[in-house]
Design brief:
The chain has 430 residues and is mostly helical. The chain is built from 20 helices and two strands. The chain has one domain. A two-stranded antiparallel ribbon has the order 1-2. The chain is globular and about 65 Å long. The mean pLDDT is 94.
Amino acid sequence: MSSRAVLFVSSALCLVGYVWVYATGVADFPIRSDGFSYYVYLPSWFLFGDTTLAAVARDCCGGEFPEFTAIIRWPETRRWVNAHPIGVAIMQSPFFVAAHLLTRWTNLSPDGFSLYYQHAAGLAGLGWIVAGLAILRRLLLRFFSDGVTAVTLLVLLFGTNLYHYATYDSSYSHPYSFFLFAAFMSLTVRWNEQPTTRRSVVLGVVTGLMVLVRHPNVLFTIVFALYGVGAGVSLSSRFAYLWRERAQIARIVATAAVVIAPQLLIYYQATGHVLVSSYGELGFTWTSPQITGVLFGVKKGLFFWSPLLLLAAAGMVLLARSTRPASGFVLPGALFLIVQTYLIASWWDWQFGGSYGHRGFVDALPLFALGLAAVFSAASHGSGARTALGGAVGALVTLSVFQMLQYWYGIIPFSDTTWPQYRELFLRWQ
């Protein structure tokens, strides 16, 4: 099957999964938990004409947002501050407009939370993941064969928690970051081939949106800054190149600043400060990061719940030793993942609450895709290695999908899974 066909089938299966989740009552509605606070800007802006969130709080929640929303009153001003920034809402806005028109046409309540609004938010996340897969496909085809690209896309979607965030939890921020990371990587390659003004502006827009979706995503700009270092490019020559292109770098930075500016204005309106910690008193424990738990723990460990990513990590080593152009992503990608892991492991709730697997790494799956593709490409040259790898990968993909369904149906706990619980529930359906 070609990579184009795989993209089409994957899109269809994501839609089937989404319909299954909500048609069968596996989940009640898409706008829930974090999805609520990412989305709530849209009804506040477009239906109530209010940038403070106060009007929608009165309409939906009796004047006070529930604790689960992570929307708090700022102590000095008593105005609402949303822990989650505006990027997801911006990327949902075309879907919101369509939902609003359908709502008015069918005479449902135009309150921002009735049927069409709910599924506009849910389908937006699905759509951005499909778009991310499409961009990732084009990026992989630069470096690998069509067959390797096709297998990589399938394994990434079903062998990790990416499918879960295209369907069950599609209103969260991770589908949007997944798309933006894939776009950022693709633009990095193209910009370094020919740093035009148009590409600089588009790269600035994508960079700004990454920060607006999740502020820690700013760390991913390491990939652009150090692209090629360790793959035939020295650090000094990389910086010399960026200095020669400083006019284009300035355009990237200026464009990103314009995109980010509305968020800073919202913070200033609510708190009197441009830069704030929107989580209030919640923060980091820098001296005691839970790195082992984040990577290997039964609670939400990245490699425990998505062991195929160990294969991707090995593939990054293979890629670093190769002469493929994709090796330019290895060193900056590794540095990003190290810093990202430390940041996640230092957060007060390093599990990130309820999720299938660790959702903090969904955003970076385009990086892991390069490692997977490198392994599949290496194995394609020998029938024995291909057969053995195919059997192992098939088993791990099956396990991932089965455990995802266990999570959907409440068999696996939403958080705080213990080793005795996992052993008892392993491959159980009831």
